[in-house]
TrEMBL record:
It comes from Paractinoplanes atraurantiacus. Transmembrane segments: none annotated. This is dTDP-4-amino-4,6-dideoxygalactose transaminase. It comes from the Bacteria. The active site is at 179 (proton acceptor). SUPFAM superfamilies: PLP-dependent transferases.
Length: 374
């Protein structure tokens, strides 16, 4: 089966991991700090590493002070963790509809939903295309809310020359194997605000505070620390950070190949009937995580089944979050976000990964042509 996404691992990655295994530090060591510095160079903001993209979101919401009685406005066109991690902190999630062309959260929809209870606005850079952070920034500042960017798809992308990571107050990343770079499991939280980054760093380290200047009882001894607010152990070990630093050295090459494959899809599929191709807005320089097409005329299920029968892995990204039973049981109902639901009914992610060959991509295109022409 040709996968829809997979990691790209080379000898330099293996050597980096082996070197970490032979060092004195398997976790909480120098490779963590190095990977965080490498992320900052790519993302445009200081970062703290965490165990995966879901814990990155949990950490970001905790750093933003999200809690019981707060509201978080986000998109339904995302993986469930963008919403569920806020709910686990006691917040109520409000779903805003998406833009029809990018599948990103619609600022106009967000603006209509903010209230005095809005603590955070969380955008998602769908498929690697950054959300409209300039418009969202105006809304968040007017509401006194923290702006969060779920950039699980978009490290390496930029908006008007500014890298993803510097666009929101807090930005989260995922380094799952199908993403733009991998640490196997892993993630990070970046922030342009030192106060929020410090809160994220403390939360991901079980809430431990060791700085003598911040201790309530600073004279206990060199071993002493305090937990002043509860946190969790979300630390990413040195072994995985070593892999991440090695992967980041190739981020430029990853981006070039994904852009080349995207351009080939654009050209090869331009005249295929019954397809709507993804767009790229002015000012956006994306590192595409997904190549999402829209299969028209109610044929998405047929195309999905027939491609997979032909050994071509395709995926649907995503089921609207509030369709899941855990949300239905809380009173969320279908029909809330009609643009997102229309997008879901047609979306299909075609294979896109760095090591996808031109020949395999041609195979995907020919299969689509055959199915949609029948």
């Amino acid at each position: 089966m040709l996968p829809y996404g997979r990691q790209s691992i080379d000898e330099s990655d293996a050597e980096a991991v082996v070197a970490a295994l032979g060092s004195d530090w398997l976790t909480t060591g120098p490779r963590v700090a190095q990977f965080e510095a490498d992320i900052e160079a790519a993302a445009g903001a200081p970062a703290v590493t965490v165990t995966n993209g879901t814990t990155a979101l949990h950490t970001a919401y905790a750093a933003a002070g999200v809690g019981a009685g707060d509201e978080v406005v986000t998109t339904p066109m995302t993986f469930v963790a963008t919403a569920s991690t806020a709910m686990m902190l006691g917040a109520k999630v409000i779903f805003a509809d998406i833009e029809d062309d990018t599948a990103n959260i619609d600022p106009a929809a967000v603006e209509s939903l903010v209230t005095s209870k809005t603590k955070a606005i969380a955008a998602v850079d769908y498929a690697g295309h950054p959300a409209d952070y300039d418009a969202l920034r105006k809304i968040s500042e007017g509401a006194g809310a923290v702006l969060i960017g779920d950039a699980a798809h978009s490290i390496g992308s930029s908006l008007n020359g500014r890298p993803v990571g510097s666009l929101a107050d807090l930005t989260t990343f995922s380094f799952f194997p199908t993403k733009n770079l991998t640490t196997a499991e892993g993630g990070a939280v970046a922030s342009i605000r030192t106060d929020l980054l410090e809160r994220a760093r403390t939360f991901h380290n079980v809430g431990m505070v060791k700085d003598p200047a911040k201790l309530r009882h600073p004279d206990e001894g060199g071993w002493f620390y305090e937990v002043q607010e509860l946190g969790l152990n979300y630390r990413l070990p040195d072994i995985l950070c070593a892999l991440g630093s090695s992967q980041l050295k190739r981020l430029g090459a990853f981006k070039a190949r994904r852009q080349e494959l995207t351009a080939r899809y654009d050209a090869l599929l331009a005249d295929v009937p019954g397809l709507r191709l993804p767009i790229q807005r002015d000012g956006v320089d994306p590192l595409r995580h997904l190549y999402p097409v829209r299969v028209l005329d109610g044929r998405r299920r047929e195309v999905y089944d027939r491609l997979r029968e032909a050994g071509i892995g395709v995926q649907v990204n995503y089921i609207p979050v509030y369709w899941h039973p855990a949300f239905e049981e809380l009173g969320y109902r279908r029909g809330m976000c009609p643009v997102a639901e229309a997008f879901y009914a047609e979306e299909l992610s075609l294979p896109l990964f760095v090591d996808l060959s031109d020949a395999d991509q041609d195979r995907v295109v020919e299969a689509l042509r055959t199915i949609l022409g029948s």
